[in-house]
Amino acid sequence: MNSDHIHKAFDNDLQQVRHKVILMAEMVCKELSDSIQAFAVRDQDQASDTVAADTLINASERIIDDQIIKSIVLHQPVASDCRQLIAALRIVKDLERIGDYATNIANHSITLDKLEITGEEQRVIDMGHAVITMIEEVIEAFSEQDAAKAKLVRQQDEQIDELFTKIFSDLLAINTGNAKLSSSCTHLSFIARSIERIGDHITDIAEEVLYTVEGKFPQDDRIKADKSAFVK
Q1: 213-220 contacts: CB < 8 A, separation 24 or more?
Q2: Quick check: 26 and 80 in contact, CB under 8 A?
Q3: How many Å separate Cα 131 from the centre of its chain?
Q4: Mind listing the pLDDT tens digit for each residue in 42-74?
Q5: Structural domain of residue 194, as residue ranges?
Q6: Assessment of whether the complete model's pTM goes beyond 0.85
Q7: 113: domain CATH number?
Q8: What are the residues whose beta carbons fall under 8 Å from the beta carbon of 6, sequence distance 6 or more?
Q9: Domain count of the chain?
Q10: Are 21 and 86 in contact (CB under 8 A)?
Q11: Distance separating alpha carbons of residues 131 and 184, to the nearest angstrom
């Protein structure tokens, strides 16, 4: 088998992996969007459907993992070729975790449907919409291998952290002032935390795109504006 044929076979494998990663990312984006929508309109049926959808995302991760590992073993790629596969392997793990957090949001939404309103719900919904925009943009960055778009996504994580810190602080104050809203505040805090963690994983994906395109991770430390651990 000549080298041209080997390289063509690897290119075909790489394109298949990239295509499957994009499809998985689009499924995760839909799951996330559905979970935020279910929370926003208090739709228990939609929330339950979102939880069920996570099984397909988990299966997709396993399929892509297997294909990447087989491709590495078979073709033993070097330099940028290997970098693309390794980045894809890490990206699908981030996507799987985003799916898990979307499931958490849906599960807490089901419980919240039975509880009283705190007044912070809309801000959490707005935070959710912000991360939906982030994941849509990072899918584009990965699909187009666009470093500039990936950098823009990375910068947005600071805003998500700031939103979470403020919401968490306000929920603590509400909880302190009204014991009847304790359960509502607790479940809403879990939803806000899940959204914040989704932002982190989307940012990780953006950094993997930068690693793939530029051959290195960003040298500057990622700005973290989440100060919830210091809120008293």
Answers
A1: 213/145, 213/146, 213/147, 213/150, 214/147, 215/80, 215/83, 218/151, 218/154
A2: no
A3: 8
A4: 888 898 989 988 999 999 999 999 999 999 998
A5: 3-230
A6: yes
A7: 1.20.58.220
A8: 75
A9: 1
A10: no
A11: 22
